[in-house]
Write a structure and sequence with these properties.
alpha/beta
């Protein structure tokens, strides 16, 4: 299916999505697309500054997102990130593991 950039999609309205690697590249594009389709995005990345830039773009476009500094190679970091995401948005229905680790 081709995606028409002029059409508003709402497949993820009020769903919570965690996206790892959201600071750049495919992770950023995925976070932005999910938010554009209505998801509340918890953006995870090692680089908090880059992740905050992703979140700023999402919120400027009218979406909702939070930035979280998470090292996906560290279990306690992931647990803390998920707990923060749940607190901010509720239980996730979508998880996109895109971090390049």
């Amino acid at each position: 299916m081709a995606v028409d950039p002029n059409v508003t999609y709402a497949r993820f309205t009020d769903k919570v999505a965690i996206v790892t690697g959201a600071g750049s590249g495919i992770g950023r594009a995925t976070a932005e697309r999910l938010a554009a389709e209505g998801a509340h995005v918890a953006a995870f990345d090692l680089n908090l500054e880059a992740t905050e830039a992703t979140v700023a773009g999402i919120t400027a476009a009218g979406g909702t997102a939070t930035a979280h500094a998470v090292d996906v190679s560290d279990e306690s970091s992931v647990q803390a990130g998920v707990a923060a995401a749940v607190e901010a948005h509720g239980r996730p229905q979508v998880v996109c593991n895109i971090a390049g680790i």
